[in-house]
Write the C-alpha cells for this entry.
Amino acid sequence: MEPVLVHGVRFNMKTLRFTVLAIALLLPLSVVAEQLVREFSGSRTSQTAEFEVDAPWLIDWRVNSEFVDSMGMTVVLLNEPSRTHAGTIMKTKYPGNGLKLFNEGGRYSLKVDAVLANWTIKVIQLTPEEAEAYTPKKKSLL
C-alpha cells in the first residue's frame, strides 16, 4: 500500500485508519453536548412517565392551539415515586414556549393540565458549562 501524505507527514493506510479511529473514539469523551432524556407531547391532560436526571437539567416546553382565546395549560413537576408536588414549571393561557433550568436532580414525572392545547415538553440533561449558558447574567447598576 502506498503511504498517504497528510500535512507533510507520511502515513501508511493502517496507521492513518488507526489514528482516525482513535480520534473518533476519544472525541465524545472530551466534547459532551446536552442530551435529550425524554420527550413528551399531547393535546390533553396527562401524567407523563417517570424520568431520572442529574443536576443540572432543563425543561424546554412549547404549546400552541387552534383555539387561542379558549386554551390553557399548566405543567407541574412531581417527585417520584411519591408523586408529591415539586413545583410548578409553567402556567399559561397563550401559545408560546419557554425554558426552565433545574439545579437539583432526582426522579420525577410531569402532570400536564391542558385545555384545547397541543404541547411538547423536552427533558434535557446538561453539563455545568451548558447550564451556565442558560443562567441569566446579572447586570451591573453602573
The mean pLDDT is 86. The domain at 35-133 is CATH 2.60.120.380 (Jelly Rolls). The longest strand covers residues 106-115. The two ends are 67 Å apart (CA to CA).
